[in-house]
Amino acid sequence: MATNRNVAIVGGGHADWGVRDATWKDLAQEGGKATFDAVPGVGPEDIEGLFVGAVQPERFAYQSHVAPMVAELLGIEVTEMIARTELACASGQAALRYAWLAIAAGQLDATLVLGVEKMNLGRDYMPEMQGSMANVLDREFDGVNGLSAPPFFAWYAQRHMHAHGTTREQLSLVAAKNKSNAARTDFAQFQTEIEPEDVTESPEIAPPLHLYDCSGITDGAAGVILMSEEKAREVTDTPAWITGSGQSSMAGNSINNLPSFSGWPQARTASQNAYEQAGIEDPLEEIDIAEIHDCFSISEIIEYEELGFAERGEGGQFIEDGRSHLDGDVAVNPRGGLLGCGHPLGATGISQALEVTLQFQGAVSTERQVSDATTGLIHNLSGSGSVHSVMVLDRDPQ
User: Fold this and answer.
1) pLDDT 10s digits, 369-384
2) Which of 5, 118, 245, 303 is the most exposed place for a label (fewest CB within 10 A)?
3) 341 catalytic per annotation
4) In degrees, to the nearest 5, what angle opens at C-alpha 302 toward C-alphas 259 and 53?
5) Catalytic: which of 160, 164, 343, 388?
6) CA dist., res. 76 & res. 95, Å (int)
7) How far is Cα 179 from Cα 158, in angstroms, rounded to an integer?
8) Which of 14, 89, 293, 388 is the catalytic position?
9) Beta pairing class for 375-382 and 289-291
């Protein structure tokens, strides 16, 4: 797929993530304000298009038609294009992709991409919260049989262990790495460093997964501003250029039709398409930072393999050898991933892209700064893992 114009992320910001005493509207305003505050010289009056990633505001906030509401809350008079994107956990990256394509095609020069999710409704609403999450799978066939996210990903962990010898200890290494990285991320939901043994000592949720193997239920927002090359160069000398994007969906949404329970060929297809666009031949050698979808610890191990960092079946050894640490072959989830930062569904992909941008700009904590990083990747899965989305970012637009 060819695009006509170079497109850059010039900056962005976060609302604080966690269990917030805040409404959906509050989070949208906090995230929007933080985004504009982070990009001097750019305000609501400069925005032509608005894309809002939001998964279930109808169920969590009892509000639909949220994109125009965000425009109203932030004082943006959208003159060209406005939309809400919903693709479960990949909703934020979907919004990024649509904004990128609109600018590349010449329809827009400056757009705001904002992801917002209000998921915590209080303990009295826990059944409703869990029921809403189960609806991301096929409600009539999978959700009613108890397949919320933890048991679904536990199946993947069990199968990967059986097929490839992945160990419980390797799962713990993923969770400990990411939660400890999040301790150096100011907006993160979880900010305490832990050891691998803390993971296995946490309550068992769905064998072999324990509590610390699972991402949180998170309120939060994140935003970025995308611009055409001409506009971006007026704003910053250190943008992050979007150089490739890929997306793949196989077999719909029902688990009965998934091609594998120990891998995601969809992720392999999406990443290969993104690499081809970006001119990447060896991702392990050329990708410096990878913000990938560790909704559960097993997810990251499988993604090492499907994104081309490790051979199939060797993802567990990849983390055991320290190759995904900040000083490893590729720094995976330096902000703390979903396990550490939390997972406000519509905001996650946007936060990942912002992390890569801030890494390029040298604007993150020195404790998690990846030295001399020039190329980054973001990855999201959604639904029953049937959809995978990948985007490549670079310091150089070429």
Assistant:
1) 999 999 999 999 998 8
2) 5
3) no
4) 85
5) 343
6) 17
7) 23
8) 89
9) parallel
